[in-house]
Amino acid sequence: MGGMVARGIAINDPARVVALVMMDTSAGPIPGFDPSLMDIACDIALTDGKQALKDLLDFASALDTPAYKRVLAARPGYPEFEARKWNDMSEIMWGTMAREIAYQPDDLPAMATLPMPLLVLVGEQDKPLVAASHLMADAIPGAELVIIPDAGHSPQFENPEAWISAVSGFLSSLPAVAR
Question: Are 26 and 132 in contact (CB under 8 A)?
Fold first, then answer.
């Protein structure tokens, strides 16, 4: 959802945004994604509860990449962090968020007119969003695309060195802003 919020602010009030980082997100509908599948998942969450939804998502998760599995196994506290995020989320919030993502508007034409520098980051294993990231970088003049190797949907955890290098390199390339 962060990408949807950030792009909305940049499109609707570009004077408030000096630079934009879009990470593992899209500028609209996710290429190749069938929104009706999200409707099914939302119905399961709202009728059968969060555990039934979790069972479904654990079975068919596109985010269950080799990088994600590696971090779960190797990083102390990460499984508990993931469990806490899941447990703190309500079925209603998940369903609302999921439908917003599934049926988001195509903002790519509006993003192509953004005046601020843009960094598009994506983990190489986050296959649905690699295509979306290429679409953004190709359509937005001056956009910089960085594909983080050996990372999925959470490159800040899955390959933090490459992620921080990309973000800090982008930020250090920006002109100083008078405050």
Answer: yes
What SS3 state is found at 121? strand
- 46, 97 Cβ separation under 8 angstroms: no
Instruction: Provide the β-strand partners of residue 30.
Output: none
Q: What is the pLDDT of residues 122-179, one digit of tens each?
A: 999 999 899 999 999 999 999 999 999 999 999 999 999 999 999 999 999 998 865 5
- Model pLDDT for residues 86-124, shown as the tens digit of each residue: 889 888 888 888 888 889 999 999 999 999 999 999 999
CB 67 within 8 A of CB 150: yes
The CA-atom distances, in angstroms, between 26 and each of 8, 22, 55, 89 are 12, 8, 26, 23
pTM of the model: 0.88
Q: How does 92-122 read in b/e, with b if 16+ C-beta sit within 10 Å?
A: eebbeebeebbebeebbebbeebeebbbbbb
∠ CA(157), CA(159), CA(160), 5° rounding? 65
What CA–CA distance (Å, rounded) separates 51 from 45?
A: 8
Query: Closest Cα partner for 146 from 105, 117, 175?
Result: 117
